[in-house]
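User: I want to check something. If I give you two sequences, will you return the structure for each one separately, not as a complex?

Assistant: Yes, each is folded on its own. Here is the first sequence with its structure:
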Amino acid sequence: MALVNHSTIIEFLLLGVPEDHHIQALVFVLFLVVYLLTLSGNLLIILVIRTNSHLHTPMYFFLNHLSFLDLCYSSVTVPKMLENLLSEKKAISVEDCLTQAFFVLAFGGTELCLLAVMAYDRYAAICYPLLYGQMMSNELCVGLAWGSWGLAFLDAFINTLLAWNLDFCETQVISNFICEIPSLFPLSCSNSSDNFAVLLGSALLHAFGTFILVFFSYARIVSTILSITSTSGRSKAFSTCSSHLTAVSLFYGSGFLRYLMPTSGSPWELVFSMQYSVVTPLANPLVYSLKNKEVKASLKNMLQKSLQHLR
């Protein structure tokens, strides 16, 4: 098989969408609705946090970052998928593919870090309520948030730079609706073992490092909650964590499986990619608005004020 440098290959074909035109039309409408709901839901969360001074706390500071991140995440993946659903040729240029792969990895890594930081925040609030203000100072919160973004983007830059140096074969088909670093390895004619090793190493350090922080934070949280004698106290403590636990479960499970499983073209790869890049950005604002009493109260107040202005 001829070896061709990737600079001579103009595009890849994203064939993770159904071939039937009627199904494509239905999928287009479905994901257009999902995308619009994702944008409006996350923008609403950001607006509520910004306008309500009672929500200017570390927990909502990180939630604000998470909502902005989900806006970016869905905007990197869904518009291109919608375009391909309307197009006869499901193509993406090599440069755009590598750029999308970079941002998918960067935003995914940032979300891992933010979820871990939010777990630590809940640990500080529940286990050390009297020291919470000192433990989660404004300077620390800002440092943790921007550190999450910086670490993830550095990791994505290293992996994407290595992928850029791969030589690709004549086979240009990616059995997915987005470009991801693991999807490029089977297309390479050159040895991609170093790329895989770096990606696996960074995934283990990044994913399991943040997971360990989440695990130990919640181990201490559960221990502290179980020591609370009153039922109402336990219920209140658990309610402050339920939204975050739901977000962690949705994202970590699919993200781990996608980046740690071998790339084989399995339909499960498509399912896991869709879960963390499309479903999770939509689910997060729903989870935090439906399960969080303070956010629900703020949304209700905002709606009432809007209706009063209209009258």
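And separately, the second sequence with its own structure:
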Amino acid sequence: MTTNQNGNFSTDVSDFLLNCFARSPSWQLSISLPLSLLFLLAMGANGILLITIRLEASLHEPMYYLLSILSLLDIVLCLTVIPKVLAIFWFDLKSIGFYACFLQMYIMNCFHAMESCTFMVMAYDRYVAICHPLRYPSIITDQFVAKAAIFILARNVISTVPIPILSSRLHYCGRNVIENCICANMSVSRLSCDDVTINRLYQFAVGWTLLGSDLILIFLSYFVIFQAVLRLKAEGAMAKALSTCGSHFILILFFSTILLVFVLTHVVKKKVSPDVPVLLNVLHHVIPAALNPIVYGVRTQEIKQGIGRLLDRALY
């Protein structure tokens, strides 16, 4: 943004237009139905999981509280992105307000970082459960979950605030068509007439500092866990230990694999259609959200039993 004579920030743009799949418009029709089903699945599965954990006393434990945080983050991310994308696909509602765009940008960056941080805390939870089982009840307590939630919130809310602020202060001199389905930081910033070097550097630094450090700590935790598991000699102990952290490890793979593919497509963007990273960016907001509660529901006996009891109450 520029400043007027009174020193206030001004811009020539009052809203933006989200131009989804500019080079492959036929994708909108073919993707809209699967995306709708994934969105409904994500909302329904996470809603059922949250209700089950809330109503079942046997699930009032730190591990399930962390899972509840993950479900809440998934729901917010889905609601922030997918309804707008579907509105573009179905009704051609491409317009998004200037400040609404930067709000969406902030929520996406902040909540993705919070999700990554939650996975890190869950990895620590599994590390303590496997490597220090006798100390687990005294380390992973309700108070620990409360402190972890405050840390997740504070770290990511504060560190991601500059991203939309830096972008909103740029001068957008008439260009308002974003070649994306969402208000991704760099997709918006490249419309500016100003130098966006600081925006790029801060996005890069925050992304690799937060997500990078989280993934390193997550995989370090699992490296130590697998070392401990291999030393178990009791019959069935290895299978039981792997079962307790298998669901979480699968979720980590979902999250990191989609993120890795998205990054790689940007690295080799000259060899792939520019619409491919756009598609991956959209899917990254809904596929993990849809799969997370299903993986835990299928693999965790306590959750399956809790859902079964809720269904029995509802039917009878």
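Because they were folded independently, the notes below concern the second chain alone. DSSP finds twelve helices and five strands in the chain. The chain has one domain: 17-310.
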